[in-house]
Every structure is written in structure tokens, then in C-alpha cells.
Specification:
This protein has about 280 residues and is of the alpha/beta class. It has two domains: about 200 residues, Alpha-Beta Barrel (TIM Barrel); about 60 residues, no CATH class. It is about 40% helix and about 15% strand. The protein is built from 14 helices and ten strands. Helix 3 links the parallel strand 5 and strand 6. Helix 3 packs parallel to helix 5 and helix 10 packs antiparallel against helix 11. It is globular and about 55 Å long. The structure holds flavin mononucleotide. Flavin mononucleotide binds next to helix 9.
Length: about 280
């Protein structure tokens, strides 16, 4: 099982603070929220990649559309012993996709191929993966690109079984996912509202796991730990409060959190959070 990248949520502090819970839940690997692969940016300076070892593998995910910049980033992380890397070809936000990044790569086959080539060449056979969607507007766009994906020795393709236009809601398209899987020469990993807990190893899970943390008997204690770790990392202040709200927003409909959420939502300081 793979822990999904959720920008602002499954960040390094989250992975470190809840490393035991993540490992005990059966996750063998976490993919980081995306890191920019732009020219002149050193990925090793990114906060996501500055942690120590954890009881599961952490694979960096990159977003970009410049194959040379991607190559440089991958060489950098490889030099520190990082074995695997992932490409974001799924981010649905118009600001990202209209610039040809994230899911926008699905609209430019030549650019997509150049990115896959840069990734496979730099990381090596079976070491570079792609996280994507069924398409941008339609559910058959990824399917049409399978011959292109099949030309590269990827580690696997993670498919969020929605289109970019659908963002994060509505029913995932299982039939279309199965079709992509059937056509793929590379391993395909399912993603999108998969039930948690889960028996299958071939699945990536994000929000269902985050929600399940809030349903635990020790969820208050988990939150206290996260507040303390975030305050230590960020030195207190609005960054901590924003981060905590982002997590508890996933818990707000749970019986033990629905009364606390309106109070927490109005909190402005770490002290107020700690008093909850
Ligand atoms: C707040 C948020 C941030 C996300 N950030 C990323 C990201 O950085 N990279 C990525 O590939 N997907 C990102 N995703 C998509 C998730 O990884 C995943 O594909 C999606 O949430 C569906 O899986 P789930 O239902 O198991 O959460 C994000 C999703 C959300 C809701």
C-alpha cells in the first residue's frame, strides 16, 4: 500500500509524526507532495526531502515540464542514495494544467514522452513512476496514451480514476481504470477513494487514511503530537494553525470532532489549539 501525496497534509512533518501509525496501517511507501522540477531549483533544499529515515520508503514526486530540469533534479536526489522518483502528471488545477504541468502533460504527448525519457534514463529501468488521471476532460485520454507509456520501462503508473475536470469528487471510473490496466505493459496502481483499511498492496490511499486517523480513540493525542511537532518545525504562528486546520478539516464530520471543529476553525494561535 502506498500513501498518497496530499499537499499540505501528508507532508514531511505528518509522515514523521505519524510514522508508526502509517507503518502499522500497512503502508510500505509514501510519495511526497509535489516538488518543483524547475531549472535552478535544488530539490535537496526542499523541506520535503530533509528528513531522516522512516519505517517506510519515501519517494519524491516532481512536477514540471522541462526534461532537462527534471534530469538535473533527479541526478541530485540520486546522488544522495534516493532510488526511486515519481512524476506528477495528474494535478488538476487550471493554473498548473494550462501551463502544461501536472495533468496538462496529458495534452502534449511529445512533452510527456520527453519527461518519461528523462526520468527513465536518469533513474534507470523500473525506478521512475508516474502518477496521473484517466484524462483531462474525458475518461479515455489516458487509454489513448497507453502506447506512449508502454514504450518506457516505468516502475509503475498510479492512476487516480477520475479526470482532471472532476477534481476530487464524484464516483471514480472503475471500468475505464480496468481498461487502462489491461492495456498497460507497466504495473498499474489504483488510486481514488479506495476503502481503508485495505488488503490489496496495489493501491494508493490518501484521504481515507487521513480520515481514519481522526476516528481513532487516540485522535486527540495524535493531534497534540502534530501541533507540538509543527510548532517546533515552524516556530509557532499562523503556519502551524493553518496546517492543523487543514488536517482536522478531514475529521470535521466525525462524531468526536464535529463539535470541536467550529471552535478549532476560529483558532488563531497555537495556544488556542492546545486548549481544545
Ligand atoms: C489537498 C490535496 C493535495 C494533493 N496533492 C497532491 C500532490 O502533491 N501530488 C499528487 O500527485 N496528488 C495530489 N493529490 C491527489 C491525491 O494524491 C489523490 O490522487 C487523490 O486525493 C485521490 O486519492 P484518495 O481518494 O485516496 O485521497 C492531492 C489531493 C488533495 C485532496
Amino acid at each position: 500500500m502506498y500513501l498518497a501525496p496530499l499537499r499540505g497534509v501528508t507532508i514531511r512533518c505528518f509522515r514523521e509524526t505519524f510514522s508508526r501509525e502509517i507503518a502499522e496501517a500497512g503502508f510500505k511507501e509514501a510519495v511526497t507532495p509535489f516538488i518543483s522540477a524547475n531549472a535552478g531549483v535544488d530539490p535537496l533544499k526542499d523541506r520535503e526531502l530533509r528528513g531522516g529515515p522512516l519505517p517506510f520508503r519515501v519517494t519524491p514526486q516532481f512536477i514540471g515540464k522541462d526534461p532537462q530540469a527534471l534530469k538535473t533534479c533527479l541526478e541530485r536526489i540520486k546522488s544522495t542514495g534516493c532510488e526511486y522518483a515519481d512524476l506528477n502528471a495528474g494535478c488538476p488545477f487550471p493554473m498548473v494544467r494550462n501551463k502544461g504541468r501536472g495533468s496538462g502533460l496529458l495534452k502534449d504527448a511529445a512533452k510527456l514522452a520527453a519527461m518519461l525519457e528523462a526520468g527513465c534514463e536518469t533513474m534507470g529501468e523500473g525506478k521512475f513512476s508516474v502518477k496521473t488521471r484517466l484524462g483531462v476532460e474525458r475518461t479515455d485520454e489516458l487509454k489513448a496514451l497507453m502506447p506512449l507509456f508502454n514504450a518506457f520501462p516505468l516502475r509503475f503508473i498510479i492512476v487516480h480514476a477520475r479526470t482532471a475536470k472532476e477534481m476530487y469528487s464524484g464516483r471514480p471510473h472503475m471500468e475505464e481504470f480496468e481498461e487502462v490496466k489491461r492495456l498497460s505493459r507497466n504495473r498499474v496502481i489504483y488510486n481514488g477513494d479506495a476503502p481503508f483499511p485495505q488488503e490489496s498492496d496495489e493501491v494508493m490511499i490518501g484521504r481515507p487514511f487521513v480520515r481514519a486517523l481522526g476516528a481513532r480513540d487516540d485522535s486527540h493525542e495524535l493531534l497534540s503530537r502534530y501541533i507540538a511537532a509543527s510548532a517546533q518545525e515552524l516556530g509557532g504562528g499562523p503556519g502551524v494553525v493553518g496546517r492543523i486546520k487543514e488536517l482536522v478539516a478531514y475529521w470535521k464530520d466525525l462524531p468526536r470532532w464535529e463539535k470541536l471543529w467550529p471552535v478549532l476553525k476560529l483558532s488563531r494561535t497555537v495556544k488556542e489549539l492546545e486548549a481544545l
